[in-house]
From TrEMBL:
The chain crosses the membrane at residues 293-312. Keywords: Membrane, Signal, Transmembrane, Transmembrane helix. It comes from Acanthaster planci. This is Osteopetrosis-associated transmembrane protein 1-like. Coiled coil: none annotated. Residues 1-35 form the signal peptide. The keyword Signal applies.
Length: 362
């Protein structure tokens, strides 16, 4: 029927040419729609490792709300020993809002590599949680040292695994695992956490015996606790914190200065000292005053007498210079050589006078 209609319009093409251009796309679209009503069977997804039967999408996932959950398809029993290590689980978290456009996921990792990746993901997430939980006040080093050691341990295991290091660390341009580890290590080094402990590698748990602090850090922590205890005790007795706790606070300040420069100090100590200083100066309105009367009097006398010594010195210097100039002038007068007599020349028209001419004139 459609062919007869087309022939009829072609015969009178000059008059019906616009109509042909309108009906031809409609005719093609009708043919395409009829072809899709009875599609052919979709071949099953297979690869060199395993084969997956051609099942319906509903067999893989059961959508609940907006999260897709389900179980992977059954795997054929003719798998070899080399394919037994291949992870065949479908990753539902890759499919947001329950859409299964990537329902069949062919993994490229072996089971051992997948376990290493999952272990590192777990320990790194624990360390990040610990760091964020202790961000303020920042007590990252002493609180999260065990978690960081676990991160380092798992990353070294990935590097040592010959079959997994290339695929996990350098198989793509993004290098997610390596970049994440670089960020975590940079965070640890930026806080100078290495200087908090005698040896970070010994910190397998958070006990003092297995994770000893450095000697100066331990002394600083002790003095800081004593200072805070002094604040609490004096406030409880309605006493003056600035007077009663001044000596303890001065000892804490000296212990902090002995740790070195700010860039070299464990940041836990920096945070504790800043907190104690803020409580000392802001909460209790105290200042570090040194009651040294002798030095104050000596400095005052020196600055008051400085103008006197200055004017005396300038006066003595000016007298010496004047005496020296007068002596030099006197020496010039005594040692001045006698000047010879100058012969005066006669004016124009006059003769030179000699002894004979002068005697004759007389």
């Amino acid at each position: 029927m459609a062919i007869i209609i087309v022939r009829k319009f072609v015969r009178d093409s000059r008059r019906n040419m616009p109509t042909i251009f309108v009906l031809l796309p409609v005719f093609i679209s009708v043919l395409i729609c009829n072809a899709h009503k009875d599609p052919s069977a979709v071949p099953a997804v297979t690869d060199s490792y395993y084969s997956v039967p051609n099942q319906k999408e509903s067999d893989y996932f059961k959508v609940s709300g907006t999260i897709a959950t389900g179980t992977p398809p059954a795997i054929t029993t003719d798998m070899t020993e080399s394919t037994a290590d291949v992870v065949t689980a479908v990753l539902p978290f890759l499919l947001p809002f329950g859409r299964s456009s990537m329902a069949r996921f062919i993994p490229a990792l072996t089971r051992d590599c997948r376990e290493l990746l999952e272990d590192y993901a777990n320990v790194s997430s624990i360390f990040v949680h610990c760091a964020l939980f202790n961000a303020k006040p920042l007590l990252l080093c002493e609180t999260c040292v065990v978690e960081f050691n676990e991160v380092e341990k798992n990353f070294r295991e990935i590097e040592k695994a010959d079959t997994c290091s290339d695929s996990l660390l350098s198989s793509d341009r993004v290098q997610i695992l390596r970049e994440i580890h670089k960020f975590l290590k940079n965070l640890w080094q930026k806080a100078n956490c290495e200087s908090c402990f005698k040896d970070v590698k010994d910190c397998t748990n958070k006990t003092t015996e297995n994770c000893p602090l450095a000697e100066k850090v331990s002394k600083f922590r002790k003095y800081n606790n004593e200072t805070l205890n002094c604040f609490e005790a004096v406030v409880a007795q309605n006493g003056d914190v600035c007077t009663n706790c001044s000596a303890i606070y001065q000892r804490l300040s000296k212990a902090y200065q002995s740790l070195g420069e700010v860039e070299e100090i464990c940041f836990d100590c920096v945070e504790l000292m800043n907190s104690t200083r803020k409580e000392w100066s802001v909460a209790y309105n105290c200042t570090c005053t040194r009651k040294d009367v002798v030095s104050i009097v000596a400095i005052s006398i020196f600055f008051c007498s400085f103008p006197i010594f200055f004017y005396l010195g300038s006066k003595m210097h000016s007298v010496k210079v004047e005496h020296k100039l007068m002596k030099q002038n006197r020496l010039r007068k005594t040692h001045r050589p006698s000047q010879p007599k100058l012969i005066t020349l006669p004016e124009h028209g006059e003769a030179f006078l000699t002894e004979e001419s002068s005697s004759n004139t007389i």
